[in-house]
Amino acid sequence: LPNLRFAYVDFATPEAKTIAIALSEQPLVGRKLLIKDGQIHSKTAQKILRQQKQPPAPTLFIGNLPFETTEDGLKELFEKHHEQETKRGAGKDSKKGKMEDDGFILRVRMGTFEDSGACKGFAFIDFSSVDNATSALINIRNHLFNGRELKVE
């Protein structure tokens, strides 16, 4: 195969990626390497990320929920879209079965009225990592629920 002079590398940890990027412009076999972060987001995802007022965290705030919302319904929304992304990215090697097995969502905490138990219109979803929360945040399909545009932060 001809030497195309570029490569894509997947790192085991975010720290390893950071260390590699810091080595950019260092010589290797007589040539300086240009090392870039390949994490490319769509324009929509970039816009969502720019609008965030808080630093990245493993918890998302979900607002403008219908009063009929249940914890299970909200969890199902986010897991369904996570499963679709996982299948799309993994191809034939994707996991089969429920997404809760992979620890994507740890719990859903929904604000409820004491007298009726109905949703107050907001919830917090705790994800297993900041990366999982960010993935859920930038997935535009998670911003619409039962015909309502959600506030996802």
Automatic annotation (TrEMBL):
Keywords, sorted A to Z: RNA-binding
Species whose genome carries this gene: Coprinellus micaceus (Glistening ink-cap mushroom)
Gene Ontology, cellular component aspect: nucleolus
Alphabetized PROSITE patterns for the sequence: RRM (PS50102)
Region of interest (Disordered), ranges: 79-98
GO molecular function, one term: RNA binding
The name this protein goes by in its record: RNA-binding domain-containing protein
The keyword RNA-binding appears for this protein: yes
All copies of domain RRM, residue ranges: 58-153
Pfam families: RRM_1
